[in-house]
């Protein structure tokens, strides 16, 4: 794993790997995380292979290093990338490399739909009564396929969904690296600018950033609808407390289980999808997101 210090989704997945290691005595599972340091992760992967690992499940620290990792290990061990895509072309270059993730397009669509549904029920959100959703977007990591898809499809769904679509206008958009503190700092900056008075809705590619936005707004006594993705426990509590507005469930448990089962199949030399309920296309498994109540 890239890191488990501050990302609840990664923390949940890490716990799933630990639990599965105990529940499957036929597997020898080596688990570690890299404190968001690619050099540390590179060393950990080398050490795991030296200890006899026949397959690797990798949540990349730096998605731009996907090619280097694939070039190094392709054909030597099975490769399963988790949550962070090493790059479609890089993945396609190695027949024994796979990617397991949630369906980020679906996540964006569900977030956009949630905005539309709640916007219709809250006419007071349209502060200037122009019939346009003025929004600020907190994005994850640059060049991250999930970031790109969540942003594109959230905005596109708000604009174009049949019968529900509403014109939108971007006021602010920047990267907060899926991190609560960075999102809070970004909101602290935005709220000092005159254009922030136009913002009617805040969108975030994940709950960690949405919670950072909530913290910043609370400090300033500003009330705005904030939408996240992942349905982490802290986000659910924030929604129940009337702070965050809504989120979308990102099924870390089944993503982690599927990536581990896929790696175990590769290590054992059996059919990659054996025991996995999800379909695979072009060596990619996408676990569905789900609406939250």
Q: What is the CATH H-level superfamily of the largest domain? A: Response regulator
Give the C-level CATH assignment of the largest domain. Answer: Alpha Beta
Total count of helical runs of at least 4 residues: 10
Order of helices and strands: HHEHEHEHEHEHEHEHEHEEE
- How much helix is in the residues? 40-55%
CATH topology of the largest domain: Rossmann fold
Radius of gyration using CA atoms only: 20 Å
Largest sheet report: 5 strands, mixed
Low-confidence stretches: none
Structural class assignment: alpha/beta
What's the architecture of the largest domain in CATH terms? 3-Layer(aba) Sandwich
Q: Given the C-alpha coordinates, what overall shape results?
A: elongated
Range of strand content: 15-25%
Q: Total strand count, please?
A: 11
Question: Domains counted in the coordinates: how many?
Answer: 2
The overall pLDDT, averaged over residues, is: 95
Distance between the termini: 30 Å
Strand order of the largest sheet: 1-2-3-10-9
In short:
The protein has 293 residues and is of the alpha/beta class.
List keywords for this structure.
five-stranded mixed beta sheet, alpha/beta, 293 residues, Rossmann fold, signal, 10 helices, four-stranded parallel beta sheet, transport
């Amino acid at each position: 794993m890239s890191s488990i210090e501050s990302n609840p989704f990664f923390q949940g997945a890490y716990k799933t790997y630990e639990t599965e290691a105990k529940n499957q005595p036929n597997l020898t599972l080596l688990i570690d995380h890299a404190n968001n340091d690619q050099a540390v992760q590179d060393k950990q992967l080398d050490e795991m292979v030296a200890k006899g690992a026949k397959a690797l499940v990798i949540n990349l620290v730096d998605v731009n290093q996907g090619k280097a990792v694939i070039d190094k290990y392709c054909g030597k061990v099975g490769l399963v990338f988790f949550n962070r895509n090493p790059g479609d072309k890089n993945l396609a270059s190695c027949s024994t490399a796979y990617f397991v993730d949630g369906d980020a397009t679906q996540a964006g669509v569900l977030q956009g739909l949630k905005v539309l549904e709640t916007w219709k029920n809250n006419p007071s959100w349209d502060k200037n009564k122009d019939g346009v959703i003025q929004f600020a977007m907190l994005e994850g990591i640059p060049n991250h396929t999930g970031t790109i898809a969540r942003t594109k499809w959230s905005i596109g769904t708000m604009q174009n969904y049949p019968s529900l679509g509403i014109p939108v206008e971007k006021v602010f958009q920047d990267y907060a690296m899926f991190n609560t503190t960075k999102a809070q700092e970004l909101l602290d900056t935005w709220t000092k600018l005159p254009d922030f008075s136009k913002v009617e809705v805040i969108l975030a590619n994940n709950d960690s950033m949405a919670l950072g936005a909530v913290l910043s707004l609370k400090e300033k006594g500003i009330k705005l609808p904030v939408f996240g993705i992942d349905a982490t426990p802290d986000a659910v509590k924030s929604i129940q407390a009337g702070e965050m507005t809504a989120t979308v469930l990102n099924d870390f448990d089944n993503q982690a289980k599927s990536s581990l089962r896929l790696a175990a199949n590769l290590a054992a030399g059996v059919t990659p999808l054996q025991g996995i309920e999800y379909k695979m296309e072009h060596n990619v498994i996408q676990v569905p997101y789900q609406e939250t109540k």
